[in-house]
Amino acid sequence: xxxxxxxxxxxxxxxxxxxxxxxxxxxxxxxxxxxxxxxxxxxxxxxxxxxxxxxxxxxxxxxxxxxxxxxxxxxxxxxxxxxxxxxxxxxxxxxxxxxxxxxxxxxxxxxxxxxxxxxxxxxxxxxxxxxxxxxxxxxxxxxxxxxxxxxxxxxxxxxxxxxxxxxxxxxxxxxxxxxxxxxxxxxxxxxxxxxxxxxxxxxxxxxxxxxxxxxxxxxxxxxxxxxxxxxxxxxxxxxxxxxxxxxxxxxxx
Length: 253
Known about the structure:
With about 250 residues, this protein is α/β, with parallel strands linked by helices. The chain has helices at about 1-10, 15-30, 35-50, 55-65, 105-120, 140-150, 165-175, 190-200, 230-250, and strands at about 80-85, 90-95, 100, 125, 155-160, 180-185, 205-210.
């Protein structure tokens, strides 16, 4: 089911949906449906432009990021573990000797989790398995190795290396480790879906968001020019809204 959901995600969210619309446009052209073709092209171009500019990206992603406030520095926290959710890996990285390395989002989450560990001296749980069989190692294993490089002792790090999505992160952390109260670390745009997954599965959480994507210093003329960064973050936001809706229908296990 996890693989099917990822295939649907790639097909029906950007950029996959635009490829499908282009194919649809070719079909319309073949059958001489010029009026409908014109409407399809205009709507496709307008949507592509809007998703690629900062103000629209922020309108999509900022409500997700602001759902849970950032932790205040030196806050009094009572928790048993820090749970760091995975954000993807890059397989067979040459600079890592052919081993996996963390994606930028995953590395930012890990860095913040390590910072919280040094501040509160709590053990860390890293999560994430292998989506496809050709993945050489789980994301949790890659994350644990990265934490060791950051100077976190291995005895302070637990691995949940079998989950394939956020819901399974929560389910398997509960089943395999059964933590008490946790500091939940993930990207701010991903926090709403993550908190729902963990609380539905019976884990008491304190949100510790990081990796903010929204522009909070104002816009310039360049903000209204299309860019790949804004397009990517618009995709992230749409992915989260759909994922949140889907998880809201799931029952706790």
